[in-house]
Each structure stands twice: as structure tokens, then as C-alpha cells.
Specification:
Elements (H helix, E strand, L loop, with lengths): L8 H18 L11 E10 L3 E5 L3 H27 L3 H5 L13 H11 L2 H9 L3 H21 L19 H12 L8 H5 L28 H10 L2 E6 L10 E9 L6 E8 L3 E8 L7 E3 L3 E7 L5 E9 L2 E7 L2 E4 L1 E10 L5 E11 L2 E4 L11 E7 L7 H9 L4 H11 L5 E7 L4 E4 L9 H7 L5 H5 L4 E3 L26 E4 L2 E4 L29 H15 L11 H9 L4 H12 L7 E4 L2 E4 L1 H9 L11 H12 L5 E4 L11 E3 L4 H20 L8 H4 E5 L2 E4 L13 E5 L5 E7 L1 E8 L2 E8 L14 H7 L4 E2 L4 H6 L4 E8 L5
Parallel strand pairs: 2-5, 9-18, 25-28
Antiparallel strand pairs: 1-2, 1-32, 3-4, 3-20, 4-28, 4-29, 5-6, 6-7, 7-8, 8-16, 9-10, 9-15, 10-11, 12-13, 13-14, 14-15, 16-17, 17-19, 21-22, 23-24, 25-26, 27-28, 29-30, 30-31
Length: about 800
Amino acid sequence: MTLLPRSQVPLLRASSAAILLALAACGDKDGKPAEPAPKYSAEIRRTAYGIPHIKADDDGGLGYGIGYAYAQDNVCLLAERIVTANGERAKYFGPEARGITEDAVPNLASDFYYRLINEPEAVANAWQQQPAPMRALVEGYVAGYNQYLDERGKGGLPDACKNAPWVRSMTSADMMKIIRRYAAEGGGTHFIEELVGAAPPGAAAPAPPSPAAAPRHGGPSKIDPQYWQQQHARIGSNGVALGKDATENGQGLLLANPHNFWQGDFRFYQLHLTIPGKLDAMGASLGGMPMVSIGFNKDVAWTHTNNTSSHFTVHQLQLDPRDPTSYMVDGKSQPMTRKRVEVEVRQPDGSLATRSHDFYQTDVGVVMRISDQLDWNRKVAYTLLDASMGNHRMLEQWRAMNSARSLNELRDGIDRIVGLPWVGTIAADKEGKTMYMDVTVVPNVPLAKEKACVPEAFRASAASGVLVLDGSTSACRPGNDPAAPQSGIFAGASLPRLERDDFVQNSNDSAWMTNPAAPLTGFPSIVSLDAQEQSGRTRIGIAQLQARLAGTDGLPGRRISMPQLQGLLFSNRAYYAGQIMDDVLRACDGERQARAANGAMVDLAPACAKLRAWDRTANLEANIGFGYFTSIWDQLYGSPLFWAVPFNAADPISTPRGLRVDDPAGVGALRTALANAVLEMEAGGWGLNSTWGEIQHTERNGKRIPIHGGPYNYGIYNAIVSRPAAGGGREVTEGGSYVQTVMFDRNGPQAQAVLAYSQSVDPASPHYADQAGLFSSKTWHTLPFTEAQIAADATTKRITISHKAKQAL
């Protein structure tokens, strides 16, 4: 089936009706019209916390059940996702408004971008490249979502989208657009405003956004490696796989701890998918993806972490002196292609107007502009080439992983398909083997090409993996490998991987320190960096594993059980507190001294007492010392005080550490920072006897649920990010989401999990807040996987749904 323009849909419907009439005319042996068999059917059993176990006889039926179940829980979320992927946000919500996540851009810019990447030809091409089972899966999903929408009617939907004009039936094209949107998260979506902001010199530049719509990200430029380090850390993950040399029973054990937004499109959804004899996988998926993304089957368990590979290249074009919309390649002028995109925009009076934007396309991507850094003038322009836009293999990739019968089969499928967009893979199997694979869609720029093709001004960025290439010669295009499934990317087998019997791990650093006993080195900068300072999460993760396996953590034995692995995550230790707090407390010597700060005299004694009493965690019971620590860190990080012991590539887990406080000036700076911290906590409404659980929360139906964990930049493994909330305290916005541990034993996989924000975004749902309470109390839910376990769940509710081909009238 190919995607058709809307103008041809009536013809398709008419053709389908004629076929149905012919089939009906055949009738049965008694001459009566035959009742059409269900086109799709599925069984949905929901166990505790609303987890759907979806069983069907084929891929179409499975997708149908997934679409229906997801709509039951999150119909409004998916309806808005369809609007976004189609570039229609400005039409329904206004041009300057934004989505609800911190990184959302103004609706008008978002619409222009998604209209560009999801143009009909690109979407049709993506559909045509789907294997037949994946087409059936998508078509079934669409039918399931639409059936739920038909049954409820717009008036029967949750309040968030009840009778909303933007809610409509879904198409297979919509699903392809959503998938392409997910694929672009590793590259293009970070540059939406830069792409929309590009215009030829002399042309009228696009109108700047209003102050309310100004970019939120701030900080470093998006071609600055520091920007990408921050992104990988914020919306990242922790993953640990333990093998037979590390576990109590000598079989595999896995921890999955992806971090993501708690609102919006990137929420995870728990599900269990079964096609008898073909597929039986359980775990979680990003909403709208009809497959298990992170999970397990009876043989293998896996998780993902955002990797540090670049999934795009930037190209510096030398322009034709006669025309700034033409560029020189190998001495010859080539014209850019102007692509006009039009969107409908809601006006203040409710009427609609059409707005257009011209993008300029080249053979190395779309022209963009970063002010004062990548400008478009009469000499040069810069383009973004997003390799992920050629990746139509995501569904096929996760389907292969879901059905893998061994670690080898999982590895071979990833190498063959190379369909993972921006996440590496950590896996363990029932035999006690572990594996890390950093195999994603990465532009094929070997180190030799990097050295030859990166202009001098951009070599520092290139050394950190963000490549600006010379666009004036075809020799500097990403290369083609016949073993790769897509032009311009590395073949899977050439990318990093490590198999071990003890452990592999990743917390959004490069592949280098997957296991310190076997560093992964020698890869191109765009793939993986060696000898780089590791994040606090990587360091605390490895340090905890090493201490447990060495028996130096005060616990008996040198093996790791599932409860112990869970404890490593939920200990909520602030790793960097262990690196600097002894030095901070030195500044409290003579603590009765008052320091001037912000025009006030501050008595440091109470704060110093709280710091000494603080347990150096972000647990609910942590005292205000945690707040003082975070403030001091934020004020001084990067100053001459850091670090007493600098980073040493030969000792990457223990360095850097300590503060330079051997002189009175250093102690004075710390005391000033502490005085400022006291004032900051007071201004933020933190009482001297406040606990972290009284400050950080998620609010559900007027009730505040306390949430433990803290920001990644303090080295807290259980990364949780929050922002000031109306009425005081801090509301969680992102961080730990679907948390899963899977242990294999002689009875198969034993899995426990918690979805930090719960299954549904509907406040009226019983599954709107139930698992948020579990997360708050560090309670793990045992996942029923086998038929016997599902049957034993006293809460199980079962429905069978079917979708019949309609009789033509």
C-alpha cells in the first residue's frame, strides 16, 4: 500500500466499497450474504497499575490492540502529537505558544520544520520502505486508535481534548510522521529555530519571536560540544547489565533507568505484546510507538541510553560570488533549491491566515543560521545534514530486538538493521552474558576525513565530536559503506561494542568507559571520544559496581542481587558531595564569623550545622544541607577553586576531585558562596528545618506527591529535574521515568519496574497517579509476564476487541 494524497482518498474508498460489494454478493452456501470476518482482533488484559497485555494472531491485530489500549489511557496526548507532526500547532494553538516541555519552540517555527521534514514525498518514501509486517502493525494501530475515537466520540473524551477541533482520526501517514519526528530528536529538532531563522543576505529575515517566545535553552551554542553534553546528561539514562561473574545466581541481571520528560510526547508507556509462537516481549515504549522499546523477553533483556555520537554534520558552503543562493562544489556552481512551506496560523480574532517560509536545500542539507557563529553572508553559508532523516528502520529494529532469542541474535539484528536513532544498547541474557552496543545512525566521517575536511576555525568542536565540514569539495561528504543499510552512515559492525561476563554500563558518556577493565578506544570523534572526563553519574555508577564486586562497600559477599542493584539506583547519593564536601566543611571552621553577602550579614553557624548533619543524598529525608550544597556547587563550579586533583585519563573514575582551599582566599570564597546559599534558600521558601521531600514533588489532582532524586549535574544517579512551582516548592519536569530491573533465573525472567509518572495523563484515570506513589516510596512492582502470572493477578480485567470490514451499502 502506498500513501495517497487526500484528493485520492475518495477514489480509494469507492474502490474498497466495490470490492466489498463483490465479496458480499458471493454469500454463503445458503445464498445469504456472508458476514465479513474481523479485519483485526486482539485481546487486552489489564493487570495492576493498568498495564495492558495485548495478544493477537498477527501484526495487524497486535498494532490494533496497542492503538486501542494507548488511546484508552492517553488519547489527548496522541491527538496533540498528530497535530505537532503535521505542522498544525499554530493553526489550533496560535503561533507564539509552545508545547509543555522545557525545550519546546514557538508553534510557528515548529510547524515550518515539521512541514519540511514531513513533506508528502518523504513520508511516502518512509512508508514504502517498511517491511510488510511493519505496515500491518501501523495500519492496525491506526485502526485501533480510530475505533476508540469513534466509540467515545469527541464529546466523550477527557477534558484536555473534549470536543477539541484538533482531534481527528489518524492515518498511516500520521504514524510515519510521528516516527520521523522521533528520529529527528538526535539532530534536526535541536536546530528548528536556526533552520527557520535562515534567509539569504539582503532578503527580509524572518520576524524574530516575541520576548515571550524567545529561545529557552540559553547557554552554549548548539554546535558547541558543551551544549550536547548537557543534552545527553539531561534527557539521558543509566543502564547496567550484569553477567555471570557478577550476579548471585550466575545469570543475567539488567537495570534500565531512562530519563525523560514527565509531560508531553516523550512519556513512556508500559505494555506487553504477544503473537503466539512469534513474539512475547514486555516493557515500555515511547507513546505512539507500537513496539517495546525498553524491555525483555524470555531470553534477553535490554535498555537504551542516549549516546554521544553525532547524528548530523554541518557543512560550510563557499558561495558563488554572483549569487548567495548558489554554492561551489569542486569548482562548479550549484543552485540551492528553494522550498516554500505554508502553514495556517490562528489570528487573535480566531480567523486563520496563511504564513509561509522559504527553506534553502542543498545536497548536504538545509541552510541554517546561528548568529555571529554560522552566518549566511555573501561568502559562506552553513547547512545541517541530519542522517536520521534517512532512517526508516526504527520499527523493524525494535521488532527484531523484541523477538531476539539470544544475545547474539540481538547483536546481529542491530548490526544488520542499524535502525536505532540516538540510543546505545545495554543487554543481558539468561546465560549470564552482557553486551553494550553503540550502534546508531552516525554520518560516515572517518578520522582521516575529519582531519582533512574540518576548517581550522572548527577543529576544537570536531575534537569533541561536533563536525563542521568543508562543503566546497565532494570529497568531504560523508562516505558510503556498502555494508550499511543507508548511504552516508557507518555500517553497524564498524561501531563500538563490548561483551563481558561481569558488567557493562553507560550513563550518557561515550563508549570509552563501558567497563574500565576494557576501554573502547580508537573510534572517529563523531562516534566515540577517548580520554574524556566522565560525568558524575558514570563515575558513581562504576564506583558503586566496583565497590560491590570488590566487597569494599561494607556488604557481605562480592556478588550483586536484584535488590542490591535497585539500591544502587535509589541510594540517591550526590556523588560530587563526596568529592568536595570535606573541603566545604573546612570553610565552616570559625563558623561564628559573619560574612557579608548581597548586602546582608549572614550567620553561617546554622547552615554549617545542617551541612554537617546532611547525609549527602537527595532522599526525601535529606535536610536543607542538600540545598546549600547545590547552591555552592552552582556558584563555584568552573571557578579557580575546581579541582584540587585534575582529571587524569589513567584514573577516570576517581578524578577530578577536591577543592583548592589551601589558602585563605579559597576559604573566603567558599564562605561567601555559603552565605549566598543561605539567602537563596530563604528566598526560595526553604525553611531551616525543611526536608527535600517537602520541597520536590509532582502534583496530581491537587495532591503533592514527594519525589526523591536530584539533578544530573550533582552526580545523582537517580536523575530528577524540577523547577519552582506555583505555591512554593519544586515541580518535577523530567528525569527518571520507566525504571526496570530484570533478573533471569531457572524460571525465566523475573522483572520489577515502576513508571514514575504512571500510565495515563488523564486526571480522571485510576492510573494517573498510582505509580507516582510507588516511585515516591521506592516500591517496585513485580511484572506479570507468563500466562500463569497474569492469571494470578487479582486485578486482571479482560476485553476482546475486533474491527470488521464495513458492508458497502
